Amino acid sequence: MARFGMVIDTVRCVGCMDCVAACAVENDVPAGLCRDWITTETSGTFPALRTEIRSERCNHCDRPPCVTCCPTGASHVEPLGRVVLVAKEKCIGCKACLASCPYDARFIHPEGYADKCTFCLHRVTRGLDPACVAVCPTRCMHFGDLDDPSSEVSRLLRERPHHALLPEAGTGPRIFYLT
Amino acid sequence: MSEWTTTRANPLVDPALHVWGWEIPVYLFLGGLVAGMMAISGWFLFADRHRRTDSVAHLLPGLGLALLSLGMLALFLDLEHRACAWRLYTTFQPASPMSWGAWILLLVYPALAAAALLGLTPALRRRLPALAGLADRLRADARRVRAVAAANLALGGLLGIYTGVLLSTLAARPLWNSALLGPLFLVSGLSSAAALVHLVARDRAESELLARADNRFLLVELAILALYLAGLVTSTRVHAEAAALLLGGPWTAVFWTGVVGLGIVLPLAVQTLAVAHRIRHTAVAPLLVLGGGVLLRIVFVYAGQASRWPPA
């Protein structure tokens, strides 16, 4: 069974926010809300400073706390690609999943249900990349099966140094940043 | 050193999580209070106090039903997708404390109703003869009475612990990430219920009995709070930073003055003197305990949401 993930090259990312705009349009995300966003982190001590620009979203964790805390089963792991999704017709809007996510990747849709990145599964099932990956002008985003050793994402993770966000939280994030 | 900026500005999440407002502390307090009332009801049923007309055993289950319904209303008001609330009862999710809570609450109502039936007052018996007949049939069999008592004790314990476990399993908020939160909320609920009985009991011996019990609950609550803070401070950096919210950070004054000082230490001192017959029993100590119980939930719900893992 596939295990979808994303690999993002922070050396190439310029923070143009095309991924954010593409997601909003593709998924009809209401104004003022976002399923993905740009984070800029500057670390070090002057003059030895380093800036990393990252396109961030739900990490579709291997051990998703948002799924285990959900009282109705609305938050679930989809068999296809083990993507974490929300069945909006089952969601009661209790917000436990928002509180359980160490990445604060979820929000409440104006219709009352918890919402977040879906890896554009509706596109992936048609053989397309997620909208954010498809529009990236620097081609810094890569999507694929982390369990397939021949996939581009697996190759990049073998060949390039990388990190995930908050691995110490123990949720098993599946978005990796090349450095 | 690290500087971090984001383009994300989602309501309820940014700049810091604030998904739960007044409704959740109110629900957690009322849930804990009713849990304590059920435990005391169970104890009184085992002690046959429901047969005495002046006992508070007549009042507790009915009042518990009303207070729990108020708490459930607060919880319902907090939901963002209220039309789907019935979905809670179409499934059981064993890993979700909220799912456990939903089903526990469903069992709590009949247990409380049975205890209310056993403690039906003479006035209500006259007004509601059908219920009086049912109550007599229930009272006639000692095994049934013991079963109702045991159910109230057990479900009261489960309900009280669940209100703390609900928060403690949300590991993304380090202030909540302690297994001691369940016992803390349980003993706080027991203390609040004991204070309520101390306040409303007409029988002086009963009032004094619960004041003595409350003193023990307050001592245990203090000990659990100390262990809880020690556990956080000696844990990882994120947990120590979360504890700092209560140890020098923005929630320090309200926690130490309101929850610990006015909500536990002062009523403990007043009630210790009262049960030693050095001063008169007044409403001051139990009211302070009840206020402290509300404040404990407010501090934990709000400060917990302010605690977080570092951005990356």
TrEMBL record, chain A:
Spell out the molecular function terms from Gene Ontology.
4 iron, 4 sulfur cluster binding; metal ion binding
Which positions fall inside the 4Fe-4S ferredoxin-type domain? 4-33, 49-80, 82-111
Keywords associated with the record: 4Fe-4S, Iron, Iron-sulfur, Metal-binding
Do you know which InterPro entries this protein is assigned to? 4Fe4S_Fe-S-bd (IPR017896), 4Fe4S_Fe_S_CS (IPR017900), ET_IronSulfur_Cluster-Binding (IPR050954)
Query: Would you tell me the protein name for this molecule?
Result: 4Fe-4S dicluster domain-containing protein
Species of origin reads Eiseniibacteriota bacterium
From TrEMBL, chain B:
Output the InterPro entries linked to this UniProt entry: Electron_transfer_protein (IPR052049), NrfD-like (IPR005614)
Give the record's membrane topology. Answer: Multi-pass membrane protein
Which keywords does the record carry?
Cell membrane, Membrane, Transmembrane, Transmembrane helix
Subcellular locations according to the entry: Cell membrane
Q: Which Pfam families does the record cross-reference, listed alphabetically?
A: NrfD (PF03916)
Give the main localization category. Answer: membrane
Report the domain of life of the source organism. Bacteria
The portions of this protein that span the membrane are 24-46, 58-77, 100-124, 145-167, 179-201, 213-233, 253-276, 283-303
Give the signal peptide, or none.
Answer: none
This entry carries the following GO cellular component terms, namely: plasma membrane
Q: Which family does it belong to?
A: Belongs to the NrfD family.
Q: What is this protein called?
A: Polysulfide reductase
Provide the organism lineage as a comma list.
Bacteria, Candidatus Eiseniibacteriota
